[in-house]
Amino acid sequence: MSVKLSELVYNTISDTHSEPSEVEMQTIANAVERVVGADIVLRKQIEQKMRNYSKHLVTDGEMLNCLILANYVQKQLVNV
């Protein structure tokens, strides 16, 4: 089964009542590590969330989860 990275990211950060699941964040980190260009795609998605947040189109909880995800992926890739 194939799932788009954008869907994984959306599902991971959209539940603003809790922090993102470590399993989901690890899945995204694995994709970024293994799929050519996935790092760029993820970066662009995070940048878009930030732009939307500055326009008040994204909730505080969703932005916080996005930053938690970005931090997690960055730490996983540094430890590789």
Major sheet characteristics:
none
Determine Rg (CA atoms, Å).
Answer: 12 Å
Instruction: Please report the distance between the alpha carbons of the first and last residues.
Output: 26 Å
Helix-strand category: mainly alpha
Contiguous low-pLDDT stretches (5 residues minimum) are none
Q: What level of helicity do the residues show? A: over 70%
Number of strands: 0
Q: What is the succession of H and E elements?
A: HHHH
* Relative strand content: under 5%
| Shape descriptor | globular
Q: Helical segment tally?
A: 4
- What's the mean pLDDT score? 93
- Can you tell me the number of structural domains? 1
Describe the structure in your own words.
The protein has 80 residues and is an all-alpha fold. The chain has one domain. Helix content is 72%, strand content 0%. The chain contains 4 helices and no strands. Helix 3 packs antiparallel against helix 4. It is globular, with a radius of gyration of 12 Å. The N and C termini lie far apart (26 Å).
Features:
mainly alpha; 4 helices; 72% helix; 0% strand
In short:
This protein has 80 residues and is an all-alpha fold.
Question: What secondary-structure arrangement, pairings included, does this model have?
Answer:
Layout: H1 5-13, H2 22-34, H3 38-54, H4 60-78
Helix pairs in contact: 1-2, 2-4, 3-4
